[in-house]
Write a structure and sequence with these properties.
By secondary structure, this protein is an alpha/beta fold. It has 2 domains: about 5-235 and about 475-495, Rossmann fold (3-Layer(aba) Sandwich), CATH 3.40.50; about 245-460, Class I glutamine amidotransferase (GATase) domain (Rossmann fold, 3-Layer(aba) Sandwich). Helix content is about 30%, strand content about 25%. A hairpin with a 5-residue loop joins strand 27 and strand 28 (about 430-435). Helix 1 runs parallel beside helix 2 (about 55-65) and helix 5 (about 175-185) packs parallel to helix 7 (about 205-220). The relative contact order is 0.12.
Length: about 500
């Protein structure tokens, strides 16, 4: 069985996923067969394994950093919020059902989750030498501790030492470290082997006395101080990342791309590649006035198309998006956003509207009708663009959706699938298009062709494709930054290993 190390945090968004990704790459570089694991994950963004299973996006990236293909065992339970108090539960990569989180977890469901987690971890540990386990939120949520199947219960199951990660950028990290230890039961406190302080910038001498105080008060060492690494940020898992201030001011030197921040937004990592382009300013907005000056509007994925359509209508965004499109502003929709661009959304079984059947008028920008079914499409997809300004460019992505969209007579497809079928929908000039392909903008040629179309509208010359985004180089750079910041000898010792096998 594999040795394990578990990364927990004093709160959400402290950098657990980033540190787990770095450790997966570091252990791989050191010659070990390593795999990631997160038992229970609540996330807006997901990843499709090669066999068509759905897991958390972070575990998919961590598998890439480990140099292996992602499997459903790496995240056996994925919870995706879809409405007030309600979430869709994915078990072993497949839809299990909806759960209402306004009430406490039933004992039989808790035991079911633990059984799924135990089986998945055992299968993964039998095939690898090291398992890097990621926790969720904080292990010291005392009102929910008995139901927590993402933190200490998993550490005990795996026999894993726990590194507690604290966010120095947020402030209060020293108090959070000590306070978390005080709130943990004795048996869980014993599992904590040390601390890692993340997102550090400043004078280390000013920090050292605080680190010494934490070690003295808790009896646990500080095993790392990781610098703030914004340039190496990986995909975000939840909506916390979108709560940062968004600038919508005009910039004479960059294309202004407005992404509608839907209440049930999901897979917003589809826009990461656009955000990294030097000639773009990508803003997530909720106010119709913030659409002023947009070079393009994007409707991203959503976990609840019907409720988010109602949000667009009630906020005035629907009317403003139609007005922008009528004035010639390009509009793109991805997955649920594609559904919103159509004529009608049909929900005969009430799958999107909480059990109430209904028929809803979409934005009417594409001649498409969407019907929702209980079955979910989860697959990886390859296609080539049929859009006039990007014709022939290959795209690779993945689909995760319940609704099925049908083009009405005369409506053009946006892509040709590799199996010969057609996908998505587009206006004759391609300025308005919709697709189910998550990751469509990750494809450098297609992305640059779309951006150059926007540049031509401004009277700017086109830019050449600088090259594809090399994730392997990003993982290696992340590992190079994190290795000297951690006490790797100490971490290997915690796992009972002598150290690197090579290097």
């Amino acid at each position: 069985m594999a040795r394990a190390i578990m990364i927990q945090g004093t709160a959400s968004h402290v950098g657990k996923s980033m540190l787990c990704t770095a450790l997966c790459r570091l252990f791989r570089q050191d010659g070990y067969r390593v795999a990631p694991f997160k038992s229970w994950n609540m996330a807006l963004n997901s990843y499709v394994t090669w066999d068509g299973g759905e897991i958390g996006r972070a575990q998919g990236e961590q598998a890439e950093a480990a140099g292996i293909g992602a499997t459903v065992e790496m995240n056996p339970i994925l919870v995706k919020p879809k409405g007030p108090g309600q979430s869709q539960v994915i078990v072993r990569g497949r839809v299990y059902g909806d759960v209402n989180y306004n009430t406490r977890m039933e004992a039989d469901y808790l035991e079911f989750c633990l059984g799924v987690i135990r089986e998945a971890y055992g299968a993964l540990a039998a095939r690898h030498e090291i398992i890097v386990i990621e926790g969720a939120g904080s292990p010291a949520e005392i009102n929910l501790m008995d139901q927590d199947v993402a933190n200490m219960k998993v550490a005990h199951l795996a026999g894993a030492p726990v590194l507690l990660v604290c966010d120095l950028a947020a402030g209060g990290a020293l108090a959070a470290a000590v306070g978390t230890m005080l709130l943990l039961p004795a048996a869980d406190r014993e599992r904590v082997a040390g601390f890692v302080f993340n997102k550090f910038r400043g004078d280390r001498q000013l920090l050292d006395s605080g680190l010494e105080a934490v070690a003295s008060r808790t009896g646990r060492p500080v095993l790392g101080v990781v610098p703030y690494l914004p340039a190496l940020s990986l995909a975000e898992e939840d909506g916390v990342a979108l709560e940062r201030p968004q600038s919508t001011g005009l910039d004479a030197n960059r294309l202004q791309i407005r992404v509608i921040h839907l209440p049930h937004i999901s897979n917003f990592t589809d826009l990461d590649a656009l955000r990294a382009e030097p000639d773009t300013a990508v803003s997530f907005i909720r106010n119709k006035d913030d659409l002023a000056g947009a070079d393009a509007v994007i409707l991203p994925g959503t976990k609840n198309s019907v409720r988010d359509l109602q949000f667009l209508q009630n906020s005035g965004l629907a009317e403003e998006i139609r007005a922008q499109a009528g004035a010639g502003t390009p509009v793109a929709g991805i997955c649920g956003g594609y559904q919103l661009l159509g004529r009608r959304l049909l929900d005969p079984g009430g799958h999107e509207a909480g059990g109430t059947p209904g028929e809803y008028r979409g934005l009417g920008l594409l001649e498409v009708e969407t019907t929702f079914h209980p079955e979910k499409t989860v697959t990886r997809t390859g296609a080539s663009s049929l859009l006039p300004y990007a014709r022939g460019y290959d795209v690779d992505g993945y689909e995760i959706h319940k609704g099925q969209s049908e083009r009405l007579p005369g409506c053009r497809p946006a892509f040709r699938l590799r199996d010969g079928g057609e996908e998505g929908a587009a206006s004759p000039d391609g300025a308005i298009f919709g697709t189910y392909l998550h990751g469509v903008f990750d494809n450098a040629g297609f992305r640059r062709s779309w951006l150059n179309m926007l540049r031509r509208r401004r009277g700017w010359p086109p830019l050449r494709v600088a090259g594809t985004y090399d994730r392997e180089k990003v993982f290696d750079r992340l590992a190079a930054e994190v290795r000297p910041a951690l006490d790797m000898d100490g971490i290997y010792k915690l796992m009972g290993l002598a150290g690197p096998k090579k290097g």
